[in-house]
Structure formats: C-alpha cells, structure tokens
UniProtKB/TrEMBL annotation:
Alphabetized Gene3D superfamilies for the sequence: SOS response associated peptidase-like
Entry keyword Ribonucleoprotein: no
The keyword Lyase is annotated on this UniProt entry: yes
Protein name from the UniProt record: Abasic site processing protein
Annotated keywords: Covalent protein-DNA linkage, DNA damage, DNA-binding, Hydrolase, Lyase, Protease
Organism: Lacimicrobium alkaliphilum
Length: 238
C-alpha cells in the first residue's frame, strides 16, 4: 500500500448483469472466449480484466493488479514496491511509476464493487464491502503498463487503480482514501480511454473525491469469507 493514502487491495468482479452492461457500453462484447476474469474476491497481485484502447480500438485484456513488475529468470513477478494503487498526487510527478501511464495507457477496470479495511495503529478494526446497486457496475479509473522479458520473450500487462483522498461520506468506512470511480452518464469513459489525449489537465476534476453512483455498503467479518455482520446501508451519490 502507498504511503498515507491507501485502498484495500480487493475487488469484486462477479459475472453480473451490471458488469456486462458496462462492458457493452464500452463496446466490449463478452463471450466465453473473451476470457474475462470473474471472481468475488480478487486480491492485489492477482490477474484482473481491464478495458483499454489500442490504436483506436477498445479491447479487454487481463493484467496483473500490480503496476510495477520485476524480471525473474522465468518471467516477471510483482515488484517489492507496492503498486496496486497509484496515488492521485503522484500522477504528475515525472519519475513516479504512473506518470507515463497516466498520459499514454489509461484503462478502466469494470467491477461490481470493492472492499475497504480500516486500520488503527497498523491493525484492522473493521471491514466493508461496497457495491454498485442492482443492475449497475462501477468503472474504476486505472493505469496499465506493458512489459517484455528480453530473455524469454514473455509479454505481460500490469495495472493499478488510481486512489483519491477519502470522501466525507466514506470516512467512517475508510478514512484515508477511495478509488477513482468514473462517472458513466457523460463522455468521461470515452475521454479516459482515448489514447490520443495526453494532456491530462482535462481530468483534473476527476481527481477530487466524488461518488458518482449510489453504493451499497455492508460490514463484513473478514475479506476472505465476506459474511455480513450487520445490515447493508446506502451511500448516496453526490
């Protein structure tokens, strides 16, 4: 996890009508051969499906959810530097891991929801799952990078989720950060994927914490079992 702005490393990408509708909206038709990864519990450093634009055409690809990779004798492994999240305030730092990707390889990670863990003194005190409403999905703003292994010839794709400071409505769930959730009601998704846009000033407004859609929050016992310990409640969109 990065510095003082953290998001817990788990995603919910179930095979849900809302997730499929979001992919359809982005011009991605999901068929068995598409190979999209569906899982109720995707951890950091595991494969996840993302949508990006290459030479003007949108495509779905699978990537390691960890932006920085290190070469090994046989291929790649996640770097020792945690990079499943990329902090919003590092995007314009020239030597940061996400600087080039923010300008040239933005992506969208379609999910049903994500998980947050609140820590005090380095120890978890509570866990929440947050999901889109029924029939809806969330479009997380992300970055991706391509890697080529000079010895094996292996090609790998990696990615991260951009994180923002916490939203006032979420501080009791996670007081330090939230993921970048892209609005779906306007042309934001198309602009975000447009590889010809390298002047990222047009995205400055997105880097302020916003909740563009209602979220259903459920307190759970722990991420692996995700059993509710209290009833769900609605966090209303801004």
């Amino acid at each position: 996890m990065f510095g003082s702005v953290k998001m817990c490393g788990r995603l919910n990408v179930i095979d849900d009508p809302g997730v499929r509708d979001l992919c359809d909206q982005l011009g991605i038709s999901l068929w068995p051969e598409q190979g999209q990864i569906f899982s109720r519990f995707i951890r950091a450093a595991q494969p996840v499906s993302l949508i990006r634009q290459l030479q003007g055409k949108r495509c779905m690809q699978n990537a390691i959810w960890w932006l920085l990779l290190e070469p090994t004798i046989e291929g790649f492994k996640p770097s020792r530097f945690a990079s499943f999240n990329t902090r919003y305030d590092k995007l314009d730092v020239p030597r940061s891991a996400g600087f080039h990707a923010y300008r040239h390889s933005r992506c969208i990670i379609p999910v049903k929801g994500f998980g947050e863990t609140e820590y005090q003194n380095g120890k978890p005190v509570h866990y929440h799952d947050l999901e889109a409403e029924a029939g809806q999905a969330l479009a997380l703003g992300g970055l991706c990078r391509e890697w080529h292994h000079h010895s094996t010839g292996q090609h790998m794709l990696s990615c991260s989720v951009i994180t923002l400071t916490s939203h006032p409505k979420l501080v009791n769930i996670h007081g330090k950060s939230m993921p970048l959730i892209l609005p779906q009601q306007d042309d934001t998704l198309s602009l975000w994927l447009d590889e010809s846009i390298t002047n990222t000033e047009i995205f400055n407004d997105l880097l302020a914490p916003k909740i563009p859609a209602n979220l259903i929050a459920t307190p759970i016992d722990k991420p692996a079992s995700h059993q509710p310990v209290a009833g769900p409640f609605v966090i209303e969109a801004d």
